[in-house]
Design brief:
The chain has 117 residues and is an all-alpha fold. Helix content is 76%, strand content 0%.
Amino acid sequence: MNEKLEALNQEIEKTEKKLRRAQHEEKILEHQIKTLTRKERTHRLCTRAAMLESYLPHPEAITDEQVSLFLKLLFHKDSTRQLMEKVFGGNDDFQGRGRRPETAMIAFRAAARGLPL
């Protein structure tokens, strides 16, 4: 009886050790996911900021507050919202609807030329 009990206790210890190892590996993987997500976001922010800056006249002379104000004013216009719907409407996550990316690109080009859709 004692041998059985000792064997079961050893099995419990062995299983608990495997569990701790698996929990540690899970933490490592979660950290890697956070790191990759943060790097993707940083890359996206830098890329899009560079795109914005390429359209600004003398970006080095403009303050962050001025850019923020400009974007707030721009994005609160109805015409901007309508254009965003036309351009980004193909994205599944944009307002919960989907549209093919080619359709969005056609809409963007037409809007950029001032053509009706």
